[in-house]
Amino acid sequence: xxxxxxxxxxxxxxxxxxxxxxxxxEIYSVLGRTSSAEGRLKRPEPAAGPDPxxxxxxxxxxxxxxxxxDDAQCATEWSxxxxxxxxxxxxxxxxxxxxxxxxxxxxxxxxxxxxxVVRHIVNEEYQGPGxxxxxxxxxxxxxxxxxxxxxxxxxxxxxxxxxxxxxxAESRAVTPQFGPSRAMAYNRRDIAEPATCPPSAAAAxxxxxxxxxxxxxxxxxxxxxxxxDHLDYYGERAEDWRPFRPRSEETVTSTVGWAARACGVDxxxxxxxxxxxxxxxxxxxxxxxxxxxxxxxxxxxAFRVLWERIVRSRARVAxxxxxxxxxxxxxxxxxxxxxxxxxxxxxxxxxxAHHEAGSREALAHIVVAVMADSGTPSEGDAGTTRRxxxxxxxxxxxxxxxxxxxxxxxxxxRGTNPWPPVLSRTPGESLGPx
Length: 434
Known about the structure:
Layout: E1 2-5, H1 13-31, E2 39-41, E3 59-64, H2 66-69, H3 72-92, E4 99-103, H4 113-116, H5 131-136, H6 141-159, H7 168-171, E5 211-217, H8 221-224, H9 252-262, E6 267-271, E7 287-293, H10 302-312, E8 317-323, H11 329-333, H12 335-344, E9 353-357, H13 360-375, H14 397-411, E10 429-431
Parallel strand pairs: 1-2, 1-3, 3-4, 5-6, 5-7, 7-8, 8-9
Antiparallel strand pairs: 6-10
């Protein structure tokens, strides 16, 4: 009936099996213990291609994690099943609702754009803790079983209209829509270079300048004093927000700027709109817009109005990041309430990917991945892209995975950053050359 796809590299086969069995038993309780209601779980051994079950299953259950979106086999399984649904749409004019997604591990997870455009995540759970955390937390037992029931219901409904079966030969012609090659179209600075390397060595994916606009939905300490007790994270301006204290004294603005410059951004514009502050109009389509939100602001009556103004500004927002620092005990204690408050806002009106950052490193990972997606050239441009001086050559998938792991550990380590902190003095100020 259904196939469960997950990243075996996470090393949590036991909890995955438990989740699969819980969903299976919920389905059996409704349909009976028949072979037509039986699900199949991905084998733990790595393979060169997709699991054969992906070619003929009636529905696909995906357990998302950071490892999943970086795994070649997982990306192939996802893309093959997506092609099956696309074929159904081309034949019938209707796209089947045959894929069901669950955020298994939320830490450092950045969902690729092809994933976010398909509305299939159960309860949009990736703004909160993953299903694995709910499974392991005795206090979250009711929420965990609620997800199991919703997943089972969605799978049973999906299995009623399955996409057409695909042959193994046809699956080999499907190009993965994400995976290890996701960031190969743009360049990052190799950490083996000396820390004094000039900015020109941070090459981008093409000859055109890459611009990032940060919309910082935060506030100063005076305004936040009406919303929460601990104000050590705030300063005289919204740009002084340091949510990762005491582990890091960096502001959100400097962290975003640091990560953006490390992956070749030429110019960064920072805007921290107040309740009545100006918002950008007619933003050029080449500009990547990132919205970073302090969830405590949802308690301010002006928050919803500001969010609707962002929607009306016609800025093409690539991603929304909610910062909920794990080192902030007050935020951790109120995490469930804050997540639910964000979900009640008209966030989906922006039609952008949504993420949660619990640490400075997670925020930097998200920025890098967002810039990777926005910098990936279209198929028509892929053959005409020229390299800048210092750009890394294309390596094999295995070499690229090793390098990405090394880079993430290296350039996110405090003290190796060659870039000065990014400061914003006035709303809309452009930073960087050009």
